[in-house]
Amino acid sequence: MKHRTARRMRAALALTATSAALVGLVGLAALPASAATPDDVTEHGGATRNDGDMTEMLRESLVDGPAKNVILLIGDGMGDSEITVARNYAEGAGGRFAGIDALPLTGSYTTYAVNADGSVNYASESASTASGWSTGTKTVNGRLSVDVDLDPQATLLEIAKANGLKTGNVSTAEIQDATPGAEIAHISKRGCFGPVKTTADCSSESVEAGGLGSISEQLLNVRPDVTLGGGAATFEESAVAGPWAGKTLFEQASDRGYQRVDNAAELAAVTTADADQPLLGLFSLGNFPTRWVGPDATDIPDADSTKLPAPVACTENPERLETGLSLADLTDKAIDLLDNDNGFFLQVEGASIDKQDHAANACGQIGETVDLDEAVQVALEYAETKGDTLVVVTADHAHTSQIVGSAIPGLNTHLLTEEGAPMIVAYGTSAAGGSQQHTGAQVRIAGYGPGAANVVGLTDQTDLFFTSANTLGLNQDLASLSAAATLAAPTEVLPGATYTVTASGLNADWQVRGSDDLGQQDVLRGTASFQVTAPAEPGTQTVTLTGAQTGVVLTADVSVSAAAPVDPAPTASATPPAAAAGSGSGSSSTGSLATTGTSVPFALGGIALALVAGGAYLVIRRHRRGHALSHN
Amino acid sequence: MKHRTARRMRAALALTATSAALVGLVGLAALPASAATPDDVTEHGGATRNDGDMTEMLRESLVDGPAKNVILLIGDGMGDSEITVARNYAEGAGGRFAGIDALPLTGSYTTYAVNADGSVNYASESASTASGWSTGTKTVNGRLSVDVDLDPQATLLEIAKANGLKTGNVSTAEIQDATPGAEIAHISKRGCFGPVKTTADCSSESVEAGGLGSISEQLLNVRPDVTLGGGAATFEESAVAGPWAGKTLFEQASDRGYQRVDNAAELAAVTTADADQPLLGLFSLGNFPTRWVGPDATDIPDADSTKLPAPVACTENPERLETGLSLADLTDKAIDLLDNDNGFFLQVEGASIDKQDHAANACGQIGETVDLDEAVQVALEYAETKGDTLVVVTADHAHTSQIVGSAIPGLNTHLLTEEGAPMIVAYGTSAAGGSQQHTGAQVRIAGYGPGAANVVGLTDQTDLFFTSANTLGLNQDLASLSAAATLAAPTEVLPGATYTVTASGLNADWQVRGSDDLGQQDVLRGTASFQVTAPAEPGTQTVTLTGAQTGVVLTADVSVSAAAPVDPAPTASATPPAAAAGSGSGSSSTGSLATTGTSVPFALGGIALALVAGGAYLVIRRHRRGHALSHN
């Protein structure tokens, strides 16, 4: 295992060197230096971690918001026990993770769920918990970002996007899995990854039923700038209904402008990811293979510790994805692509701490924690450079693994740690072959940067939603963010002409539906255009556009007249028609997030032209009269 | 259970009222107000705990040392899981302990032990862990405040006392148990409570072998101002050797000036506890009975949750000690008695969280956590009033209990919580009938007051020693605290006369031994006096006193002459003899804490007189030439 240790040491040295170079350059206090591993923890004071009085250091670490960026790093199932198991193994009991343990501000948060009847559920899981911090609303186990009444709740990623920030979603799990899924989908069952399962298990939410569709289809609608993870298998499923019926989700993604990559070289070649060409990199059919493998946990007869197998070390998993696709690599790339003047929100999940804990696989679980730690190091390095980024590291819920002194009646793994000591990791919440259970203990939350003070003490998982949204200064009322949308249309067109109408300022709508047979467009940067054909007879043509998410309605009355100026039909052009008086009316729907209905792909080049042309068009601005979604 | 809830609510209201009255009166920021329990945790934002942005509140909570007082409250075995189990049960998942959860600054600390060969041990227990924060030195499981080489390590309580602070030690366990024991004893086996066990299991450390003696005997030597807990049974044992051989430890305590109380009325009547009359209140033969009782944990066939018994609530334990002897009551009384101009150090342990966790007794464990919470409320109320007191709440190690969603193959308890929801508390680290195991997870540490910033982030248990000692501004070099001791003796006495010699400034010695047949005295406030009989023939009499703990040696040469002034022999008197030239020499031993050897009781009244008389005596001051104990 020497090479791994050496590699981790090199990484730590590199981080230290970078940090040292940056000290003094940024407004935010430098991260506390990691104390050197003590030479002898048996000496008086030899095991301490503080380096003198930390009051001033802590004072300097308290930075008021706003933050420009937020990076949330989630260790799925990474309770305090899992952190300690991994630290003991990889860094030694007296050691320190260079990422996870470096954040200066720490607290605990509660992770309970609620039941459908509104009562509390002390044993939550990844869907209800991820929904908690993604939306600020407690929900029922198994649900993603819908509340106890199944009403969709806006997520941090969606709100960030609606406020003009770039967004990213990274996981070592299938990207449809609960943690990444909660940021981009609203559905009653977390297992409805694609059209197949959704038709079977979430039928009323399927596209064919007029619902929001499967988690994958919702992801394509939300259109984060960067999406990296596993879960390619589901994208080979075909849509059942809608404009892409019969086409695979990958084909749909390409149709809608996504850049697709599926290996490290392709990822490395990507230089831009934005609304026009969001990045979709799915590098495994299912979840990522783990970093490490090791011995199976075993039932020890009579829990007799003398019958434990000899302690052994973990080993590298030969199935691990190629170099360049570690969670740290993906985090690094995501940050590179998201960094922009308007800020970004990025969620990164180390997913298989949980999955390997369920499987009573200590080495799997530990390796994934080490993997997350390296991703945290990347995030902290960026945050320390910039001084304007809140980094939060936490878990969704606690888990089963326990460090014990002698074999338990359940499953035991006997590991030889990096510092050469034996450690028993015990799994006692399910019989051999079953899935070990989550546990309901409060879990650690740690932060660095503007607003990080809000993680200290006892908070709830739902506080993290507000901590993040507030330090970013986000307007959480999505409906209001589309309320000032405008519709640009010519005031007068020739009968039978084709002309362009362009909606702008639809900041909280990912799609917009046109009246009649206009279909649906993706809204990019708040904007979408439709080509409209005027009727053959003179009169008034009313064009109505409806935001798919907020329900805001934009209406324009266009005069159809043989006396109209020559229209640039059949395609939009940079030559504006002469402006003339037009009339418009606006209205808005009320209720929860509207469904996406049908949708048609749009030629992106046409939008740009239409926008230039729109400068001389009549701009009809309508304020919403109701609140489709209220977020406070 | 309504009355309990009502009682807890009244207590909370009382604390709130007090807090409100105090805001603005003290330099230290007020404790954060507890958010009201949300009406509906299913609403958006309904489950949050923060009340807006907490950055400024946290900033105000960062108070530089020094602190005048330190109160450490230890929940034995109170890991994050145990806190959550108890909070869920007693306050609701979205509730908040008014004490435990109110401390503004939080972190985690590691609790590992070391083995005798210096390697690490990931699964520690209460003796090694209590030694960790008591001494700043890691040790081997089962040992109390000796290091890996069995060398005694000075404790926070001892160091505080040597620095002139008052000291207290409170526990719901037998007072000889690991957590309270670590502050007042240095011994290789935590079980050596009294002479009987010590003769059998710790023979080389027994008084008869010239050792420090049993934990109880060491307690009597250290002489904290206030000692309250259980463990009276051991004090009925008789000393095997030394001046109290054949006398019970209770008789010894009385002989040495201790005030003994054994019920609430007697405790209430105590108005003073100090070096002259330290308070020893042992209210149960063994550990205190628990506050609550409840159903036994049971093995559920096939871990089939449908076979779980119906959930039930905990009930009051009819065996609980009488009113006035709760941990909160004892904490309150201890603070009252310790509050003084020089400050104090007080340790309070809620011991049976651990003991009931071992016994897989969920209600027992929960009730003890609630009990500790009320003690924390008392400490915080005092600290908030004074503004000069560091309060730290933490655990010694994590423990076994887990909150799960379905029955485990081990032991399960199905509880109906205060908010009317079912909760499964699982115990899976030992078979039915066995002792459930400690676990090695890092545990929560929380602080309030000057120096509390040092608990935030990741620390080690041994950091707590330095956090406490440093914020109190304690000189940790005990030997240096006795190095300026002086010995007052007459310069010249008549042959055969009885005269008094008085040592002062023996701040880090609890006993002092006289040369020849002078025996041993308790050192009170750094001072002890001996009655010396001059030889019948003229000449020079050399009197040598040796500090029992630091080994400092004080020597006086007294001239024995028929021409000496009339001596006030045979008893000390307020009339000083005429001063004359004398000579003295000093030396010091080196090495570890010296043993107490034999000791004789001393008439306390005599000391006072001798001290008055000492003013005109020759004062011989000797600086130490070596370091018997070095603490840095």
From TrEMBL, chains A, B:
Pfam families xrefs: Alk_phosphatase
InterPro entries: Alkaline_phosphatase, Alkaline_phosphatase_core_sf
Residues noted as binding Zn(2+) 1 in the record, renumbered to the chain: 349
Co-factor binding details: Binds 1 Mg(2+) ion. Binds 2 Zn(2+) ions.
Domain of life where this protein originates: Bacteria
Co-factor(s): Mg(2+); Zn(2+)
Recorded name of the encoding gene: phoA
One GO MF term: metal ion binding
Binding site for Mg(2+): 76, 177, 179
Active site: 126 (phosphoserine intermediate)
Organism of this sequence: Microbacterium lemovicicum
Similarity-based family: Belongs to the alkaline phosphatase family.
Matches recorded under NCBIfam families: PRK10518.1
EC identifiers of the protein: 3.1.3.1
Signal peptide (UniProt feature, chain positions): 1-35
Protein name per its UniProtKB record: Alkaline phosphatase
Binding site for Zn(2+) 2: 76, 354, 358, 396-397, 438
